[in-house]
Description:
With 926 residues, this protein is of the alpha+beta class. Among the domains are: 47-358, Sandwich (Immunoglobulin-like), CATH 2.60.40; 801-925, Immunoglobulin-like (Sandwich), CATH 2.60.40.1180. It has 15 helices and 52 strands. Strands 6, 7, 8, 9, 10, 11, 14, 16, 19 and 20 form a ten-stranded antiparallel β-sheet that branches. It has a ten-stranded mixed β-sheet with strand order 43-44-48-51-50-49-52-47-46-45. Strands 1, 2, 3, 4, 5, 15, 17, 18 and 21 form a nine-stranded antiparallel β-sheet that branches. Strand 3 and strand 4 form a beta hairpin. The termini are far apart. The structure holds 1-deoxynojirimycin. 1-deoxynojirimycin binds next to loops.
Amino acid sequence: MRNVSLYHHLICFSLLLVTHLTSVSSWKRDEFRNCNQTPFCKRARSRKPGSCPLITADVSITDGDLTAKLISKNLENPEDQSPINPLILTISVHQDGVLRLKINEDPSFDPPKKRFEVPDVIVPEFLEKKLWLQRLSEEVIGGDSGPSSVVYLLDGYEAVLRHDPFEVFVREKGGKRVLSLNSNGLFDFEQLKVKKEGEDWEERFRGHTDTRPYGPQSISFDVSFYGADFVYGIPEHATSLALKPTSGPGVEESEPYRLFNLDVFEYLHESPFGIYGSIPVMISHGRARGTSGFFWLNAAEMQIDVLGSGWDAESGIALPSDQSQIDTLWMSEAGVIDAFFFVGPGPKDVVRQYTSVTGTPAMPQFFATAYHQCRWNYRDEEDVAQVDSKFDEYDIPYDVLWLDIEHTDGKRYFTWDRVLFPHPEEMQNKLAAKGRHMVTIVDPHIKRDESFHLHKEATQKGYYVKDATGKDYDGWCWPGSSSYPDMLNPEIRSWWADKFSLENYVGSTPSLYIWNDMNEPSVFNGPEVTMPRDALHYGGVEHRELHNAYGYYFHMATADGLVKRGDGKVRPFVLSRAFFPGSQRHGAVWTGDNTAEWEHLRVSVPMILTLGLTGITFSGADVGGFFGNPEPELLVRWYQLGAYYPFFRAHAHHDTKRREPWLFGERNTELMKEAIHVRYALLPYFYTLFREANTSGVPVMRPLWMEFPADEATFSNDEAFMVGSSLLVQGVFTERAKHASVYLPSGQSWYYLNSGTAYKGGRTHKMEVSEESIPAFQRAGTIIPRKDRFRRSSTQMENDPYTLVIALNSTQEAEGELYIDDGKSFEFAKGAYLHRRFVFSNGKLTSSNAAPSASGKRQFSSDCVVERIILLGYSPGPKSTHIEPANQKAEIELGPLYLRNGRSPTVFTIRKPNVRIADDWMIQVL
Length: 926
Ligand code: NOJ
């Protein structure tokens, strides 16, 4: 009998694997629910504008917050058959232009269950920034019959709670609106109730039944962005940067943008379908107003409509505003309203405001910002050694070699297949000797195997997520029958974190870092390839309530594990596929299983830009495309673009042909090597940008409009992007391209990276492109630090000298920055770093300290020197320089722009100034 059942399981599992693994030609749409098959979405979408019956009552200031009740206007109407209990509303105001709005059920009415509020996402510092509201002023808005409440938000901004009809909005003081909620009266809050006889709350989809023991509990409302030309954000979708309307006149039948973390096999580009991660943050931008943002902290399935202009033509609601606006509809299956309004007014202000709530991106280790080589799978130790030595043979730098699931003993994470990997420590140490690192994969599904210690322990301790009947949930994933640790529980996260100690993770060494995959979580035989919504977590929380945050907690626990392993001294590196607001604090993410197609190369840009706008700057797409075999030209173009992704990793499915950079003939190897060299040369610049992100939330890779917010031509451009504020990169997304149209934003000229030639801004240039590179430009007025010598790994470049590239503007001025620390520890957080500012003006380059001065700071120094200073756009004449305080001379000569390839153009170069990077100095051109 046992054997029969085992046999049956094996067959089932093989079938599941086959369906999951075989390369089908396209995404299996039917496996996933659309809005019509999702009752809460269908209900919310069918509501009519103005249907919200709520008004505000009992408004007061309590504990520094504005509090009120939302009651049904029809309560007084005895004919109303479905009165709703009052809801409690709280508005709090935080420093820096952040308004927080909470709406939940009133506990004094004893709802059958406490609704889930997502813990551990908001950073404690944010709570300390609450402003203690003192005063409420009243004002009659428009033709309202009664007053509304007005509170201070930020100098120049106010928040208004309109009583009847219920509405919340932010406006410039006494003037124009910025953001609002429920202006279109679409607000609805389904209250929990006790099931009545005969009521059927179950939902069925493709053979799966969701018992829904608490019945309908969804929430929906509209949010309007004023003075907006476009809205952006709400990753993760494989679609354009500027979000297209999903409903309204002229919009073909479209699904809303879905936020539901799913393992979508072969996802499509150009689709509002939700994939691996969810960040309910939308940002609007327009010439009239600037930038504003909205964030809903809620981990249940969400659907968001961008309503095209004219969607409400028949609603009869005229908003009291002469401003252009974009309306959106937000719908979630469960949870509460915990929403944040960000006033901007600039793009960088909004990301700063958002990351003040959920935290800024973690500072990565230096090596993690370099090039990563991955494949499913590097077979065995010999394969690893060969790949590693080939990089040396071809003189291509790389920093990290990755091992996918096959390195384990039967997909039991934290173990090794001892036949293929008999000496894991030795293998890692060999890499480490060249300054390289290794990453292994650790997924959340634990093989249900009695002899597997992790499973035994998790079972005994009751650490698994439970199914609706209270038994350990059993789903299918790579190892077959699997269970999933309940990462919502801090005790379980701490237990998990301990598994990464060198002692517990046998065969690991300090140079090993981690990859968290399948953490949506992916369950091959679950509804929509994930966990059933009625599965149960810590504290009786239903999976439906926290689904989108499961991967986030898993990522957090893993990153904490690496911190613990290093005794709190070493920065972790963990790559995660699933994500949620706050993931930026725990590591990097990537865009999952893309395909080796030009359109996937193209869509990687808006996908990464969108992640950056919503806090997650350390992200990238699989270089080369995960599925399929890229033509060499596509692969080369992908390397050329990927070299500018914040996270730069090549990866491929096990069914694909091997594609390490030396396998496509000498010329292609040269081209890929050159792309990798571009990244390595720019590592000091990238690292400086990661530090900027770490302190301000401003992403490394930015949409053009973030740097040029007044230039309308940039607003929907998602084929080009900025790396920091100094570099503009234009992707090449077509085969055999001979030209590329490159829009260079206005106000300045731009130096073509390849030649040093200046191009005018404010226009589109038809650039000739060759196979050698994709167009990239340095903005006039900037200084970029580079390291031009190539080693085996970034770690080995530590003591190498710098090159400064000065791109002069029309007044012969420029400035730039450089951040350096030990690249590894947390000492930087105590002040152990160098932050230099370079300014070129009046023919003089100065280097000064840009770090804020604070006493008792830890020290960091560097013996590196500047070996070359390149002057782009310099009017010829002078031949030499005078250096202070050394009182020395350095010559200006024509030298190569790049040391790495023979045919480099020549540019004015200050040769061997040999000033120390750590010091203050001045170089005067004579
Ligand atoms: C799915 C991931 O997205 C992919 O990158 C990985 O190679 C496979 N799982 C196998 O672990």
